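Notes from hallway chat w/ T.B., transcribed later so I don't forget. T.B. wanted the structure written out for a chain they're using in a teaching module, and asked if we could keep both sequence and structure tokens in one place. Agreed to drop them here.
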Amino acid sequence: MDTTSRLDDTYEKLRNHLSKLWSKTQNEQKGIVDLQGRGKVSGRKSMLESNPELIKHVKELKSGSYTNQEVSDIPFKMGYRNSKGNPFYKAQITEFYRQSENLTLK
């Protein structure tokens, strides 16, 4: 491997790293974060990214005196379903509520 080739590889690595850092800061400013609250760069979209309205509803319902099962049933009646067309599981509702902590209200 000659010097030019190594420089090209190093340049591409640095460019890729800077691109990811830029995406991370932009996503953090937009409120698109991972579970640790840092800017998300890649991976499957969370429900917060794909359906923030649902997360808002879950946050409002969980703030009240509803159980996870009731919180699961209410969005189902409103038309929100999981990928299989069923109501969300209680564990998913808990995860949505955890994601709602990262929700930036606009």
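Follow-up for T.B.: The two ends are 53 Å apart (CA to CA). Might be a good example for the class.
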